[in-house]
Specification:
Elements lengths: L56 E6 L2 E4 L5 E4 L3 E13 H14 L6 E3 L8 H4 L1 E5 L6 E4 L2 E10 L2
Antiparallel strand pairs: 1-4, 2-3, 4-8, 5-6, 6-8, 7-8
Length: about 160
């Protein structure tokens, strides 16, 4: 697990279906003497047939507020910081668009959780994966014959 990101992801190459799951956690020398696990999620996944379009964006949103005194001194009220990822699936066929992409909007909506992983093989998985909520519902857009575009903006949950 990468320090500062507090998440560990396991992506399976194929669907796994079992009646029960057993998770074994072991650490030869825990620093704090205990494990702190806030949430474990097992659920369905969807990987589009084609990668997202170029231009995906990751950023940190910072809700801190800066004000100035009459004398010009700057003060900062520290607010929450969280990651935001924006990407576009620009090459969906109609089966994917009206199947999994449409279902994500129906099931998760703006209130449910989603996990966006840009590249499950990346060495920077903890930095590039965002567990959060869809910030704004966007339509499926038919761009050309048989190709549909869907945009996502996902804000991290803490």
């Amino acid at each position: 697990m990468e320090a500062g990101y507090g998440a560990l992801y396991q992506v399976f190459a194929a669907d796994q279906t079992y009646r029960y799951w057993k998770i074994a956690v072991a650490d030869a020398a825990p620093l704090a003497g205990y494990f702190d696990i806030g949430r474990i999620v097992l659920g369905p996944a969807w990987k589009p047939a084609r990668n997202p379009s170029w231009g995906a964006q990751w950023t940190w949103a910072d809700e801190s507020r800066r004000t100035r005194s009459r004398g010009g001194q700057s003060y900062t009220d520290i607010g929450a910081r969280y990651r935001v990822v924006e990407f576009e699936l620009g090459y969906l066929d109609e089966t994917e668009a009206f199947g999994p992409a449409f279902e994500i909007d129906r099931v998760a909506g703006l209130s449910g959780d989603v996990l966006a992983i840009a590249d499950e093989d990346a060495s920077l998985l903890a930095r590039r994966a965002v567990w959060g909520q869809i910030e704004q519902a966007t339509p499926l857009v038919l761009q050309r014959a048989g190709k549909v575009v869907k945009r996502y903006r996902i804000t991290e949950r803490k």
